[in-house]
Amino acid sequence: MASTEGQVITCKAAVAYEPNKPLVIEDVQVAPPQAGEVRIKILFTALCHTDAYTWSGKDPEGLFPCILGHEAAGIVESVGEGVSEVKPGDHVIPCYQAECRECKFCKSGKTNLCGKVRAATGVGIMMNDRKTRFSINGKPIYHFMGTSTFSQYSVVHDVSVAKIDPSAPLEKVCLLGCGVPTGLGAVWNTAKVEPGSIVAVFGLGTVGLAVAEGAKAAGASRIIGIDIDNNKFKRAKDFGVTEFINPKDHEKPIQQVIVDQTDGGVDYSFECIGNVSVMRAALECCHKGWGTSVIVGVAASGQEISTRPFQLVTGRVWKGTAFGGFKSRSQVPWLVDKYMKKEIKVDEYITHNLTLGEINKAFDLMHEGGCLRCVLTMH
Ligand SMILES: NC(=O)c1ccc[n+]([C@@H]2O[C@H](COP(=O)([O-])OP(=O)(O)OC[C@H]3O[C@@H](n4cnc5c(N)ncnc54)[C@H](O)[C@@H]3O)[C@@H](O)[C@H]2O)c1
Ligand SMILES: CCCCCCO
Ligand SMILES: [Zn+2]
Ligand SMILES: [Zn+2]
């Protein structure tokens, strides 16, 4: 039993007090887990663009002050009443996409979404008492996405914790908390790309590269990478991209360029940016009759997509994905096992390693073209 069980833990955390203001490393109090909750010692966390999106203030669900972070790995410190699937000492990955296995969503067999704790995680609190477990000298600090991994300790719902192989390197598999599974799953679960398919990937960041890796594993015959930064192509080839198009090199709309180069359009396309104009292009570069476009990027609140209805009437399919359609508690352990068997990449997505104290520098790096994922050591 941890000596801290049942105690308030004071630890370091990066607090977002206001949109776009630097994160502040503070001594934060983390209350013990209540019923159905798990307190995790976060050892490693990566940064994702969705953290930056909320930090920017453009996310209506963004509440301040809060502790961001949702792509991490750690060890269970203590559990609340009724928690049976994890115990202190277990190696875990916190999951912003919960999996209760009891709600209408979990039982539908049609989605990886789960409704059990969303009403709380969407407003930065915990289900049990609708309060936060974080505070600074008595002042509450909101949770984020039910994970808040930019803290040395965090409290999450038990349905949002995936128990993983304890031999897996936490400084690597923390990436299996968001971006990499999202890209792989967009291909394997959401689109179900078949061997021989022609695939277009818009945006060659971590998510887009994971889409390319997933498409290669699915046997795609061509994987066309589209990015406005030419420097992305060289590295993208290592992930499976076979051709590269920079929209800036063409007068014609990018969807027309792709249609012309693929005898009528691609079988599958993936938007991995969060740009609603590109989402339209990604749909319209798909083949008439069957082409399917998957929206992965997170667009700013209030943004809307548009196309001519005839694009869909003539057979194109427009869909989206959250966490790549993976059921978190069930499939994150499977992804960790695939990594351990060298069947999927993780190391290759990590371009920088910093410490919690350097988190603002890490966010600056994230906005630089050369950064895919930066992993922070939390202790
Ligand atoms: N749906 C989900 O579950 C989920 C999960 C993780 C991330 N996301 C979202 O996916 C998106 C991508 O994440 P990421 O970490 O790979 O981001 P990233 O910023 O690292 O990559 C985006 C890439 O798009 C390129 N780009 C920008 N504008 C472009 C344009 N107009 N045309 C072509 N290329 C363009 C950039 O050069 C960059 O290479 C983000 O919006 C993120 O919030 C969604
Ligand atoms: C729930 C869909 C969006 C999650 C984005 C995580 O980066
Ligand atoms: Zn993310
Ligand atoms: Zn559920």
From TrEMBL:
It comes from the Eukaryota. Its main location: cytoplasm. InterPro entries: ADH-like_C (IPR013149), ADH-like_N (IPR013154), ADH_3 (IPR014183), ADH_Zn_CS (IPR002328), GroES-like_sf (IPR011032), NAD(P)-bd_dom_sf (IPR036291). PROSITE patterns: ADH_ZINC. Residues 35-164 form the Alcohol dehydrogenase-like N-terminal domain. GO terms for biological process: formaldehyde catabolic process. The keyword 4Fe-4S does not apply. Residues 207-335 form the Alcohol dehydrogenase-like C-terminal domain. Its EC number is 1.1.1.284. Homodimer. Belongs to the zinc-containing alcohol dehydrogenase family. Class-III subfamily. This is S-(hydroxymethyl)glutathione dehydrogenase.
